[in-house]
């Protein structure tokens, strides 16, 4: 029964209790507000008169505008829960007092207060309730169950109508307001109950906005200004308010014509109450339909056709309605107009809006809701009133024009929705992959200019660190025009600053520029500092600009630095020397260099390696390679750095050795330098080995791997395709191959996608199925390790699928999608799912949707079977055999461990096989197991 | 008080002990995730028992950390940071933070801090060394 209910309402198992709490809460307060609103307006008309109604509307509008500003302020200093709780609290007190006042004979002004308070109360409760709800639900939850909450809200209206119709005479006004008070108190208890029992969704992005700071309103406007999506959503919201009032006016005008008492006949008597009765009936049927639609169908429609299509339904309905209305007027058209306002807008459009808000920047969610619910309602009322005063005779044409604008704004919203969702996801991503120049490219010209000014300001800073960073930044921008200004600043630096600047220039693309050489000369001529002189000489020596005669005596110096300058000068000097002198110099340099490298002291070796890194020759590389395995890590790093400097395409024969070094080391710097070196070698035959080595890489190492392979060009495509397809390889290696293909050969990847994805989906379900069932099947065995291995395999398969779909769907940042799906924060998770839905084939998305949503495993299996999938019946022994053939080392190790532990079948023989075929940790472990 | 541009934020971060070893590209990536809040003199940044979801870096101004009885725990100035402890122990704030004078604070969310630590483990090490400065044994109560 419970399962049937879950399926009928679209609620996931385990979610029922919490959903029920929110439903109860919605019924309580909507029941209360609806009683208050209905009674207050009828009492106002009875005691004051309908003529004064516009005055009450104007006051209500103005107060609501003020309240919406207050609401924005409150969101800054407190949580949506506190706001909702306080609104309920104030409502309870207010209606409690009204109930007591109504026992007596209140004065005329009281009816104004009652009417205005009830209207304001309803608007504020609607707004604060949805803001409160969004603290507990992400976008995917909202798509399934917001419709139900909306239906619960209408159920409150149905209850209130029934209560007033049946018991008004018996209970009277005071008692009914007493019931409103009791319902508000019940709402308070339910809200407290929710706070204590339902966990909030962690959302630190919004806290950032509301945490403090006096420029909060300014930053709100800036955010609006920057978010095209928020602007169009707000515009659409205003258009909806305008069309709502215009349509209400139009159908009332049509009813007036059709139900004119002058047209009354014996068969069809028409009285002054006919419109009221007819409208009442229509609204009752529509309210019932709203409840059914919200409870059972809205969530399903959204999931089936997608929100992007759902948002077109209301404008198309209105546009069709007004097109027909502009041709002829009939009762049926007017009834459709009532359906449009009371049904389509309340059920479909309101729910759509609640979902669409999720795609706006996180920091604007609360504000957008307030604008829609508390600000635009009165503003819309005011504007449409003005329009209708001047265009009363053309109300249908006004409606047609508004429906057209509604349709256009919906189409634009639909267009911006997926990009806005992805943009929100990116808010959560830290873009380590971007270089400074990439950041600059993302900025407007004005912003780039401002940044440049900021950098030059930083050059005047007191802090040497800031100055150097500013120089590094300017050099990274590779803008030659900035060089003169940069050099003039460098002149004023301290000795240490000048040395650091020289190092930065040495690494930059301007290193050989005459202006810089001139600056170095100036430094040399004007300084008395020994350190600066050494660095200047080194700079010039590296560029062959020192004469050997000037530095020959340095060879006998005890200062390593000076000896290095001398050796480099002898090797590289561009001075015009007789050929035999130049040859002699080179021989001396080579001997001195060998001497340096033979020393035990790591500093001397490092200086030697620095010199080698200046000489691009096979001989240098051979010498450098010897130091990659040196016992000192400092030397290894220096050797790798030197290697990265001197490698080129002609040094391909060292590629395998470099890959071996990558496999042997875990040092980040060595790996990065080695990868840089492999990038320069650019040998496509090493692609597979590089990718196999990348399994245990850190994120920055993996990024560099992908960059160097993609720079190798299209010749790597066949090998990359084969790696993506090869299930015997580790998932990480296949993911990297897929990501590179996404950059270099997307059509080829897409052509091979379906087969791979289908296999991986089956693999994911396989892992998940056995992770959840194997312990139940063998209760006497301790299989917790196996379960963990299977769950890890499942996660790895899912990640692989997401990466592949992301890359094939041209999602620029598929790492971001995977990270978001693993996030503890439910909102980015739901946005990642939404992005996947927008970017991959519907057939595939339906298969993976249960895998990435927070569904109980049983429901996932059921879903898979419904899609035509099946699960094999495997014994423990069969399962372990399957894991033995997996690409994952973890799977293989667990299989070996459990086979040995439970003495399953020919476990000794399979361990011997593992020893023969595997190396590394598994080889050793299998050996240990056999020995034990 | 003028807010900082992306590059100014990056330059500022280079002066913060946690990030001093990072290169320009890393600093800009982190700076991009930093929100800016301007607080008036005597304005509270957070109170005891507030939920903690972000940490703060002082770009300009001074901040006092106070206990529940408003006793001064520590005064912080430019390039200091605070509010990070509760992000890791997942508890509510155990002290107040109040601006001594008008201040510009850069804030980093918990989610982003964790991501940054995953990418640059050196930041975690720097944080650990800060935590252990006043502790000879982590099982002992605070020594200061």
What does this molecule look like?
- The complex is a heterodimer of chains A (932) and B (144).
- Chain A is mainly alpha-helical and 932 residues long.
- Helices cover 77% and strands 0% of the residues of chain A.
- Chain A is built from 45 helices and no strands.
- In chain A, helix 12 (313-327) runs antiparallel to helix 13 (331-356), helix 17 packs antiparallel against helix 18 and helix 43 (889-901) packs parallel to helix 45 (921-931).
- The radius of gyration of chain A is 37 Å and the shape is elongated.
- Chain A starts with a helix and ends with a helix.
- Mean pLDDT of chain A is 84; it is low at 206-214.
- Chain B contains five helices and eight strands, in the order H-H-E-E-E-E-E-E-H-E-E-H-H.
- In chain B, the strands form two sheets. A four-stranded antiparallel sheet of chain B has the order 1-8-3-6.
- The longest helix of chain B is centred in the C-terminal third of the chain and has 12 residues, at 121-132.
- The interface between A and B is large, with 42 and 41 residues.
Amino- and carboxy-terminal Cα gap of chain B: 34 Å
Q: Report the average pLDDT across residues of chain B.
A: 87
Count interface residues per chain for the largest interface: A-B, 42 and 41 residues
Cα distance spanning the termini of chain A: 53 Å
Strand tally of chain B: 8
The fraction of residues assigned to DSSP E strands of chain A is: under 5%
Structural class of chain A: mainly alpha
**How are the strands ordered across the major sheet of chain B?**
1-8-3-6
- Radius of gyration of chain B (CA) equals 15 Å
- Structural class by helix and strand composition of chain B: alpha+beta
What's the average pLDDT of chain A? Answer: 84
- Overall shape of chain A: it is elongated
**Helical content of chain B (DSSP H or I, runs of 4+):** 25-40%
Number of DSSP strand runs of chain A: 0
Quickly count the helices of chain B.
5
Quaternary structure = heterodimer
Order of helices and strands of chain B: HHEEEEEEHEEHH
